[in-house]
Design brief:
Pfam families: MlaC
Organism: Caulobacter segnis (strain ATCC 21756 / DSM 7131 / JCM 7823 / NBRC 15250 / LMG 17158 / TK0059)
Radius of gyration: 17 Å
Number of helices: 7
Protein name: Toluene tolerance family protein
CATH superfamily: Tgt2/MlaC
CATH architecture: Roll
Helix content: 40-55%
Largest sheet: 5 strands, antiparallel
Keywords: Signal
Structural class: alpha+beta
């Protein structure tokens, strides 16, 4: 069975990253200079996602639509979608990929949208960054306000440069969320004898049950 611990951790933190990660492994910190461009990107785009969820002036339908757009601006969704499949990204068929991509996206967005009422004006603040290598930066932030009693440290791994940064993973309480998500999905497929359709069906059934 698919483990939902990752989604709980993310939702409980009021974080917005469906952001799993990218096929680059857990980051090993190489202490180098900060990157103001990456920091500005996270400050603007991650805060936008938080603000959309916390906006009480929009209808739920409007909020979901804008949230969807904001996620595209913040995260490298295609790369994350591929990453969470782990070793099975090499063997998935075009037909399976066509079914998995929308199922995963809906699953990931629902994690946050299901808890819309929990968002009450959280504020993100960048506290620094570490350049691992050019175009690969860990941006450190805190999230406070709303229902959060103490500022929560959250790290965002971003790739890119100039105006084209994208988040590829988020670290909360020492755990890189997408890497954990990948472990959950790969375990589900392994337990099904390598049948990727089992994971796809689980995601789709979860959505169908939600729609009833």
């Amino acid at each position: 069975m698919m483990n939902t611990s990752t989604t709980r951790r993310g939702a409980h933190a009021a974080l917005l990253a469906f952001f799993g990660a990218v096929a680059i492994g857990a980051p090993a910190m190489a202490q180098q200079a900060r990157d103001p461009g990456a920091e500005a990107f996270v400050q603007a785009k991650a805060q936008r996602v938080i603000s959309v969820l916390a906006n009480k002036g929009m209808s739920e339908a409007q909020k979901k639509q804008i949230f969807h757009q904001a996620v595209d601006e913040l995260a490298d969704v295609p790369r994350i979608t591929n990453f969470v499949l782990g070793k099975y990204a090499r063997t998935i068929t075009p037909d399976q990929r066509a079914r998995f991509a929308p199922a995963f996206r809906t699953y990931a967005e629902n994690v946050y949208q299901d808890r819309i009422d929990d968002y009450k004006g959280e504020v993100l603040k960048v506290t620094g960054s570490v350049v691992r290598k050019p175009g690969d930066v860990i941006v450190n932030t805190t999230i406070s306000g709303g229902q959060i009693s103490q500022p929560l440290p959250v790290a965002w791994r971003v790739l890119g440069g100039g105006q084209t940064w994208k988040v590829v993973d988020v670290q909360f309480k020492g755990v890189w969320l997408a890497i954990t998500q990948q472990q959950d999905f790969v375990s589900t497929i392994d337990n099904a004898g390598g049948n990727i359709d089992v994971l796809i069906n689980q995601l789709q059934k979860g959505q169908a049950a939600k729609g009833r």
